[in-house]
From TrEMBL:
The lineage of its organism: Eukaryota, Fungi, Dikarya, Ascomycota, Taphrinomycotina. It holds the Pfam family PRELI. GO terms for molecular function: phosphatidic acid transfer activity. PANTHER family: MSF1/PX19 RELATED. This is PRELI/MSF1 domain-containing protein. GO terms for biological process: cardiolipin metabolic process; intermembrane phospholipid transfer; positive regulation of phosphatidylcholine biosynthetic process. GO terms for cellular component: mitochondrial inner membrane; mitochondrial intermembrane space. InterPro entries: PRELI/MSF1_dom, Slowmo/Ups. Residues 2-172 form the PRELI/MSF1 domain. Signal peptide: none annotated.
Length: 180
């Protein structure tokens, strides 16, 4: 069985600055679990879209019942993104590369200019959480995954907001017309 998570929200910043902040979001005070971020590939495709693949190493904490079963403390995450300047959209596809039998998380995000306010960015998030572990633990692991994903998304948003404020307060984005 697969569990699904869906959420949407707005950043009170324009799409160009949110897109920039997304690439600059590590490190921040809410991402102490991120050990490293490496760009694996980056290029502009035939349609003029910026495509980036990054490998992220994260520390993780398991619940007490999980810590007894699994000796997992780190996980590699592969993050693909496509930035389309013509449509003012960024699509991200994020998934764990290891421990996928225990729990596989596949996250998709779309960042776009708000239809109501061009100074806001709309974010749509979907995630699939699946465990193939068996032994009667599958449902418990997937439920844990959905709860953990929801909590992590709150921290992720706080981290992005922190980076957005740093960019705003340092005037970098203002001098580059990104708060228009």
């Amino acid at each position: 069985m697969v569990k699904f998570y869906k959420s949407s929200y707005y950043y009170e910043y324009s799409w160009p600055i949110v897109t920039l902040a997304w690439f600059l979001r590590y490190p921040n005070p809410y991402s102490k679990h991120v050990v490293s971020v490496d760009v694996v590939d980056r290029y502009v495709d035939n349609q003029g879209c910026l495509r980036t693949t990054r490998l992220i190493l994260k520390d993780g904490k398991l619940p007490k019942w999980g810590a007894k079963l699994f000796k997992i403390s780190q996980s590699y995450i592969l993050e693909d993104s496509i930035v389309n300047l013509e449509s003012n959209e960024m699509h991200t596809f994020i998934r764990n590369l290891d421990h996928t039998k225990v729990m596989k998380v596949v996250e998709n995000q779309t960042y776009s200019v708000s239809h109501n306010n061009s100074c806001q960015t709309f974010v749509n998030v979907t995630a699939q959480i699946k465990s193939s572990f068996g032994w009667g633990f599958t449902n418990k692991i997937e439920k844990f995954g959905v709860i953990k994903f929801s909590k992590n998304l709150i921290n992720s948003r706080a981290g992005m907001t922190h980076v957005l404020k740093v960019l705003r307060d340092n005037g970098w984005a203002k001098h580059n017309n990104m708060f228009v």
